[in-house]
Amino acid sequence: MMRRLVTGAAAGALATVTMSTVMVAGEKAGLMPGQPPKHIVRGLLPGSKRRRKPGEGALAALAHLGFGVAAGAAFGLLAPRPGRRVPLGVGYALLIWAISYQGWAPRFSALPPIARDIPGRPAVMAAGHVVYGATLAGVLNLLEPRTLPEPRTLLEPQTESQAAAS
Question: Where in the sequence is the domain holding 59, given as residue range(s)?
Fold first, then answer.
């Protein structure tokens, strides 16, 4: 159990980094003004939700990484074994996006719910979460490979059940 937790956390960290590249690209392309984690941290800090605050960039990066690590650890524990399916990881990440950006994030920050947001931000964030989920599942597949049966040589005789299975 501890190994699955740690492996999931490590995969979540890497998945958060890959997701962040999508978010930065979306901001640079002009699809969203500022990073959502920064808006969320700004809303949680004392003072106006709409004014910049000292240290919010570093706090936002740490909060985003911490959230991604925790979500990865949970996925590592909850996802079926052996192996993780990429569609399951993508669905998990999109569920996190929907619950966060339609639920708690608008309550604590200046970010509007998905339906009232500017068109570019939900698209970038959905794409970022797809990348997060695919990376999370892919890294877990690499870190916890399926256990395969020992290979047989051509000279070894097959049992009747092995012959029937092939």
Answer: 2-147
